[in-house]
Amino acid sequence: MSEETIKYETFQNPKGVHDVLPGDHEYHTYIKKVVRHRARQAGFKRITTPVLEYTEVFNRSIGLDSDIVSKEMYTFEDRKGRSLTMKPEGTAGIVRSYIQHGMNQWPQPVLLYYFEPHFRYDRPQKGRYRQFFQFGFEIIGESDPALDAQLIQLAAKIYEDLGIMDVFSIQLNTIGTPECRKKYTQALEDFYVGKERSIPPEFRDLITKNPMRLLDKKDEDLQILAQLAPSMKDYLDKESLEFHEELLSYLDELDIEYVENTKLVRGLDYYSKTVFEFWDKNEGSQNAVGGGGRYDGLIELMGGQPTPAVGFAAGVERTIANMKREKIRVPSKDELHVFVAQLGREAKKKSLPLIEELREAGVKTMGALGKGSINIQLKIADKFDVPYTVLIGLTEVRDGTAIIRDMEKGIQETVNFDDVTKRLVELIGKGNLDKYSPDELLYS
Ligand code: HAM
Predict the structure, then answer these.
(1) Closest atom of ligand 1 to CA, residue 290
(2) Of the chain's two ends, which shows fewer C-beta atoms within 10 Å, N or C?
(3) How much is the pLDDT for 282?
(4) C-alpha to C-alpha distance for 323 and 242, rounded to whole angstroms
(5) Are 148 and 310 spatial neighbours (Cβ–Cβ below 8 Å)?
(6) What is the pTM of this model?
């Protein structure tokens, strides 16, 4: 077989994971900018924990009976037989890091935010992927319902900035302290025992393991039972009730609308007291766009000092899907301003420093491609959809000039070669330049 005829099989990405192509990166960049801006305003600093953690970090924090740990983790043994897991969420790793780096010695509370990929071996479907990005916030070291309120407000502000808060409702509940939850869990177990026939077989072991998880399942029979089941409200102790009442009063003060949802429990074991989710008003709990809550016992459970904390995380893909559905467009910063077309080796030589000068001035420029005729290069310029093209032919090299062509209007002007950058900056407008100056960012 000759070399040309060999055909190799092409590759596809694994099921449930995706390329983030340039079009979607514009959304990623924009969301990241909004998150960073709002985070900084509120004193949060960015953290990145590794993709890999020892499996025990997640087993102990999220809980062995949770869906995430029991079914959805990417766990493997490394070459020395240690069990490692690709992070399915951010909170557990951050708590590990808080303890490991002695962050309890930092000014409290410690406010951290992240924008990271996470991995869950879920059944891929709309809004549910095996690799997905989350942005999130953790406030560690202080127990005050005013922090829960501010965190909910921060999440709502980000969604307002992204133009989609109107399509969400904030679902809010308290699941109390571990002590009152113990009593409630027992009451729920007593309620569900004997009703196994109405409970789908795959959920029956939750009756003894984690009956609260039966409350927010989508199954119709379980929803009917949940209506009849004992209510958490009747089991809340004074501390949990007062904390919740205070949180509600702060949310009211901040004019934040919420829905009190006593069936909301969330799927991770580390929560106590406040839990909340942002639901798409059309889709309900199916694809919550974000969720969080208080986890006052987790730091101690992970080996640290008893330390209260509250946090929130949102799915970036679900956020983008909502933005697209609501026809929210983000500014495209990737579009070029100028294409430089030239004819002949001399012109090409002259165009290289010009391209450099334009880029330094903040003009997004591309050019000096190939040896095609000016017409062919103009066609390339058209494909890149640039507003302006610079043409340098033999005459221009001889005269020390260049032609600037307005691609939309189809008109052109001849300018002195040395004035090309100045003229283009005028045409594009100073406010539209893409300027970056690293030395501005350094202190010495
Ligand atoms: P979570 O509810 O498991 O909470 O995830 C937060 C958000 O991540 C979800 O609301 C959803 O938008 C997105 N998400 C989760 N799984 C997937 C998936 N398979 N595909 C696409 N998006 C997904 C947590 O992870 C907690 N760590 C939140 C938290 C922070 N609690 C306290 N601090």
Answers:
(1) 10
(2) C
(3) 81
(4) 37
(5) yes
(6) 0.92
CA–CA dist 323, 105 (Å, integer): 40
Q: What is the pLDDT of residue 218?
A: 82
Q: Using one digit for the tens of pLDDT, what is the confidence trace for 217-239?
A: 888 999 999 999 999 889 999 99
Q: Rounded to whole angstroms, how far apart are CA atoms 137 and 47?
A: 10
SS3 call for 258: coil
- Over residues 291-304, the pLDDT tens digits come to 999 999 999 999 99
Residue nearest to atom 2 of ligand 1 (CA): 291
Of the CA atoms within 13 Å of residue 409, those in its CB half-sphere come to 8
Give distance in angstroms: CA of 93 to centre of ligand 1.
14
Helices (H), 101-176: 145-161
Q: Is 369 left (phi over 0), alpha (psi -120 to 50) or beta?
A: beta
CB proximity list for 323: less than 8 A, separation 6 or greater? 27, 162, 163, 164, 330
User: Could you tell which of 89, 120, 162, 169 is best to mutate to test the pocket of ligand 1, judged by most ligand atoms within 8 Å of the CB?
Assistant: 89
Residue to substitute in 67, 133, 134, 312 for testing ligand 1 pocket (most ligand atoms within 8 angstroms of CB) = 134
Mean pLDDT, the chain, integer: 93
CB atoms within 10 A of CB 249: 13
Kindly report, residue by residue over 369-399, the tens digit of the pLDDT: 777 888 888 888 999 999 999 999 999 999 9
- Name residues contacting ligand 1 (CB within 6 A): 89-91, 120, 122, 127-129, 132, 134, 136, 138, 268, 288-293, 295, 311-315, 317-318
Residue 2's pLDDT band (cuts 50, 70, 90): low
* Axis crossing angle, helix 238-253 with helix 145-161, rounded to the nearest 10: 40
Do residues 287 and 219 make contact, with C-beta atoms less than 8 angstroms apart? no
What is the position in ligand 1's atom list of the atom closest to the CA of 129?
A: 20
In testing the pocket of ligand 1, which one of 119, 132, 294 has its CB within 8 Å of the most ligand atoms? 132
CA terminus-to-terminus distance, the chain = 64
CA 136–ligand 1 middle distance (angstroms): 9
Q: Read off the tokens for 64.
A: 């062995």
Over residues 189-199, the pLDDT tens digits come to 999 999 999 99
Q: Which of 394, 376, 401, 385 is nearest to 338 (CA)?
A: 385
What is the per-residue burial (b if ≥16 Cβ within 10 Å, else e) of 407-416? beeeeeeebe
Q: Measuring from atom 20 of ligand 1, which residue has the nearest CA?
A: 128
297 CA to centre of ligand 1 in angstroms:
20
